[in-house]
Amino acid sequence: MTATWIAVLATAAGCYALKLAGLTVPQRILASPRVRRFAELVPVALLAALSAVQAATNGQAFDLDPARLAGLGAAVVALALRAPFLVVIVVAAATAAALRAAGIS
Amino acid sequence: MAPGSRGAEPAGHGRQRDRPPRPVRDGIGLGLAVGVSGVAFGAAAVSSGLTAWQACALSVLAFTGASQFALVGVIASGGSLLAGTAGAILLGSRNTLYGLRLAEVLRPRVLRKVPLAVGVIDETTAITLAQPDPVTAQKAFTATFWCLYLTWNLATLGGALGAGRLGSPQAFGLDVVGPAAFLALIWPRLKSGRTERLVALAAVALALATTTVLPVGVPVILAATAALAGALAAPAATGAHASASAQGEASPAGAPAAPDGTSPADRAT
Known about the structure:
heterodimer; B: mainly alpha; 65% helix; 0% strand; disordered C terminus
C-alpha cells in the first residue's frame, strides 16, 4: 500500500469518526459557545489559507503566476455576481486557460 | 459546491413559508445541485497526482467535500501527506457539531448511528433541521443523503476519468480550480460576518508569512490558530450567524440554523 493510500484512508477514517462522535457523545461536551464558534471558524481559516497558498506559492517559494492569479480574480468577480459554484470554477479555469493559450503565463 | 462544504438554504422559509414541507423534493433538488460538483473534485484529485481509485475512495468513504479538496490541495502543492491528512481531518470537525444536532432530531438507535454517520454533513444538516417535525425531518435527511451521495460519487468518477484524459492540467487552468473552489466554499461565510472576514485575512497572512520557513502544508494548519483567536475573541457571534441563515444565506462551513433561529429541541417541544 502506498503512502498516498494511507493518507486517503486515514482522512476517510478520521472524517467518519468525527461524524459518528457527534451522533454519539453527550450534548454537554460540545455545548460551549467557544467550542461551537471554533468549529464554525476552522473551515473559514483553513480554506482561506489553502486558497492563498495554492494561488501564490509553489513549494516553499512564492510563485505569482499571472494566469493563475487572473483566474482567481475571475472567480472573485463571478462570486460577487452570485454565480453558482460550478460556474465559478469553470470561469476561473477558463480564464487561466485562455490567458495561457494567448501566451501569458 | 461540495458536500459538507456549504450549508443549504433551509427549505420552506422566507417568502415561501406558507407552503407545505416537501422534504423529498427539496432533498433531491439539493442533492443533484451540489453533487455535480464532484466533477471538480475528481478532476482536482487526479491533477494533483491521485489515482481515480483514490479520488473515488475519498468520495465514498470520507464524503465531506472541504476535507477532500483540502487533502488533494496539499498533495498538489507538494506538501507532506501527514500535513494534508491533519488539515483534512481538522476541517471535518464541524461535522461533529452537526451530528449533535441531528441526533436530537432523528433520535437514531445505537446501531443505526453507524450508517447514519456517513451522511452527517452541511447540506443534510441544513435541510433536516429546516423541517417542521421529526417525521418530515427523517424523510428530508434520507432523500438529501442518498441523492447527494450517489450524485457526488458518480460525478467524482466522471471528473477523475475526464481529467486523466486531458493533457497538461495547467493548459486547462486546472491549477486554479483548487483556489477558486476554496474561495467559493467560504464566500457566503465571508459575507455573513466581520469575524469571519478577519479570521480569513489573518489565516491568509499567517500562511503566506510562514510559507518560506515551514515545511509545505504546515502553514495551512498553523492558520487554524486564526480560528481559535476568532472564537476566543467573539464566541457569542452565533446570533448574527443565525440571522444570516434566516435570510437564506448559505453557510458553507458553519452550523446551519433553523429558519427562525431556534434550536430543533426548542421546536420539538
